[in-house]
Amino acid sequence: MNYNWNWGIFFQPNPMGTGTYLDMLLSGLVLTLKTAALAWIIALITGSLVGVMRTLPSKGANWFGFAYVEFFRNMPLLVQLFLWFFVLPELLPKAAGIWLKQLPNAPFWTAAIGVGFFMSARVAVQLQAGIGSLPRGQKMAATALGLTTAQGYRYVLLPMAFRIILPPLTSEFLNTIKNTAVAITIGLLELTGQARSMQEFSFQVFEAFTAATILYLLVNAVVVTAMRFLERWVAIPGYITGK
Amino acid sequence: MFGNLDFDVIRRALPYLFYEGMTFTLTLTGLAALGGLVFGTALALMRLSGFKILGRIAGVYVDFMRSLPLVLVIFWFYFLVPYIGQWLTGASRPISVGAFASSLITFIMFEAAYFSEIMRAGIQSISRGQPAAASALGLTYAQTMRYVVLPQAFRNMLPVLITQTIVLFQDTSLVYVLSITDFLGAASKVAQRDGRLVEMYLFAAVVYFTISCIASFGVRRLQARIAIIR
């Protein structure tokens, strides 16, 4: 392979004047994590609401939940980001559209919101499955104790369901981190974006992508380990995984 | 709200969008699903083969691929494939690989990791008695897999495999980062040429949505029809 390896490239100053190439990649990593964190908060909140709606004894709520999930699941994430980024400001009333377009950090907010809503549909499906996996008796017992529907969800169903779906939620969180890379298309300089621009500035393709790969693997390992601890901590006594 | 939109731009771009763009997207989806399934099944068989080293290699490959963003993998292969080609053919310079070949290789390698997990679950869902019965009948390992285990595993997992293919169909839009003219790429090129981003992206969204919706509706029908009654 006639490729000029130069692993020292990471310690050379980058052309942006923001330190070395390594600093550039690390700033990308920080942006990836920030975007993913905000997106995950959005995904958890809206996903939980929609997931609960799909299990409520109301036809309207069920239908809304179904439509919501189908809407966000049947379009590529890239197309959804374009809709948020290019299309939404044009369809809003003029003043709102101009305000949106002039937001500082527009790619960051768009990416967080776009990835967040995309993932919320997946969270909703997981939560629905989690609630569905509980024995019927739990809901009945909650009703028999005189809890309202809201109280039943708050004190009985959700604390159980969330602990049961913790492992699949971990992989959805990892997917959220990975999906932020799609935001490179709307100009967000997250980890993949920074690796790409490092490659364009320095022509050291494989060093740049190797570093990005290692950083993604590290993040993955940290998240998986942290979630293992969380899983053990919240395990339900009496279940196979419990204490 | 829709007052100053010009939907005629879509009608004029239709031939380009579908003949160039959608053909690319669907060919890529189909071939990548097929290649990913074959390679993924091989990975699953390696993992379940009982040979520690083979299983370990397949496991590391699958975990590795599944922890990277697809966009990064697309970039990796786009730059790596010419060098691999040079190494394989012994040429003196990195060979040039077309956009289609490059993205096809990427998606086969990437999707194989996901397909292998599905096939692994499928193979493990076959009861232990079946391969035992097969070897009692004198079938070799290859024959057992070919005639007994894989057909059932494939059938059990067909809905999941198709669902993964729908995900793949949506993911192929990411070749956009290489400026390839797939369906979204074509839409985006027209959008930028005519300054009609809103119309073109809305149209692309509707097309992806319709195709994925019909396909996932089909999966639900199929699931009900082919379920083996035990």
- Say what the CATH topology of chain B is: MetI-like fold
Query: What is the structural class of chain A?
Result: mainly alpha
Unreliable residue stretches of chain B:
none
Q: Order of SSEs of chain A, N→C?
A: HHHHHHHHHH
* Assigned CATH class of chain B: Mainly Alpha
CATH-defined superfamily of chain B: MetI-like
The chain-level mean pLDDT of chain B equals 91
How large is the count of helical segments of chain B? 8
Q: How would you concisely characterize the structure shown here?
A:
The complex is a heterodimer of chains A (243) and B (230). Helix content of chain A is 74%, strand content 0%. With 243 residues, chain A is mostly helical.
Question: What does the secondary structure layout of this molecule look like, with pairings?
Answer:
The complex is a heterodimer of chains A (243) and B (230).
Chain A (H helix, E strand, L loop, with lengths): L20 H35 L3 H15 L3 H15 L2 H8 L4 H27 L3 H9 L4 H16 L1 H14 L11 H12 L2 H30 L9
Helix pairs in contact in A: 1-2, 1-5, 1-8, 1-9, 2-5, 3-4, 3-5, 5-7, 5-8, 6-7, 8-10, 9-10
Chain B lengths: L7 H40 L4 H15 L3 H20 L9 H26 L4 H8 L4 H31 L11 H12 L2 H30 L4
Walkthrough of the structure:
The complex is a heterodimer of chains A (243) and B (230). Chain A has helices at residues 21-55, 59-73, 77-91, 94-101, 106-132, 136-144, 149-164, 166-179, 191-202, 205-234. With 243 residues, chain A is mostly helical. Chain A is flat and about 70 Å long. Chain B is mainly alpha-helical and 230 residues long. The model of chain B has no long low-confidence stretch (mean pLDDT 91). Chain B has 8 helices and no strands. The longest helix of chain B has 40 residues, at 8-47. Classes of the chains: A mainly alpha (243), B mainly alpha (230). Chain A: Residues 29-227 form the ABC transmembrane type-1 domain. Chain A: One of its GO terms (cellular component) is ATP-binding cassette (ABC) transporter complex.
